[in-house]
Amino acid sequence: MARLSDWYGRLLDALVFAACLLLLLMTVMIGADVLSRNIGGGGVAVSNELSEDILYLMTLLAAPWLLRQGQHIRVDIILRALPVRVAWFLEWVGDVVGLFCCLYFVWYGCLITRASYNAGSINIKTLVTPEWWTLAPLPIGFALLGTEFIFRMHRLSTATVGLRDDAVSAA
To answer: Contacts by 43-47 with C-beta closer than 8 Å and gap 24+?
Structure first.
């Protein structure tokens, strides 16, 4: 399991690197748009639309890595105030609920992506693209998040009973 977890961690590192590259691309694109408009070039027509899509994709690419690093949004002040065994049990509850939510979004994401593909739905903005292109990353991103929840539960099961230190960015 440790080898699989290490491999998965490297995959998440690659995905967060891709998210960083997308952020760089978006920054350059927005800068080019602003510059072009200010010098009378009219701007980069697709920059707003592409920025929206890039933000969405960056979120799905980076979320599993953030969860693994303990950098996700987490309010654990109550867990720190509870008895250790109760807090440990609630860690399990949180991970199980997180896993089931991810599984639901994988299932639902597959349904809506397939329905969009079968219907031939298209997004018509500045760019005209098949709608399923935008929907397809959703189940993949949540499958990655669900996988990380499984690894979190494994780490929790092999650790001593108590609050996890691997799931928080600050104590």
So the answer is: 45/126, 46/126, 46/127
* CA distances (Å), origin 110, targets 56, 58, 104, 135, 137: 17, 19, 10, 8, 10
CA distance linking residue 58 with residue 13, whole number of Å: 13
- Rounded CA gap, 95 and 129, in Å? 36
Q: Distance of alpha carbon 96 from its chain centroid, rounded?
A: 18
Map out the domains of the chain as residue ranges: 2-158
Q: Is the pLDDT of residue 76 over 90?
A: no
pTM: 0.86
Q: How far apart are CA 160 and CA 87, in angstroms?
A: 12
Task: Give the residue among 81, 72, 98 at the shortest CA–CA distance from 156.
Answer: 98
Task: Mention every residue, 6+ apart, whose C-beta is less than 8 A from residue 138.
Answer: 60, 105, 109, 112, 113
